[in-house]
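User: Structure please.
Assistant: Input sequence and predicted structure:
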Amino acid sequence: MCRTKDEIVRYAPLCVYRFRLIVPHRLVDAQLCNQQYHSYEEIEDVPARLKWCRHHMGLMQKEVAEKIGITRGHYTKFESGETDYIPSDVADRLAELFHVPVTDLLDEYNSFLYNGQREMLLDCRKRLGLNQRAFARLIQVPAATLQIWESGKKRVTKSSWEKYLRDYIKVNEVCS
């Protein structure tokens, strides 16, 4: 574009570009997360807590995974809810990265495992003054299963915890 005024030639570049605005996928996810939850305290499930923390730190899943020393695929499974168990060392690193207490980051099941299923089961049984057989009958599992759980040889699955232990431990606060 060219214009002459008072015998002075003035040039102004005129560039017109037409393009589609593409919003990054992670920005859309962050906006949806912010619309769904206004604060961390109102989030009840672990995957949503992880996603909320990650978005508020402006990180991608790949970056979180690198910072805590696991693969992106492994972290993605935590955030999608595909896996329900977060190992205690990973939970510690996530809590440190997101600047939240590990107890706030985990749900009841993961807290049960984090605090040590073996110790919690033994403590609960001993406080009730029951032997293994009597305690197994009380929570309605085979004595052999309780023995394996108390030995720490096998992790209590989330479905078993929900079916046999969660409600019982909630009712009897002496065991929690």
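The beta strands are 2-5, 8-11.
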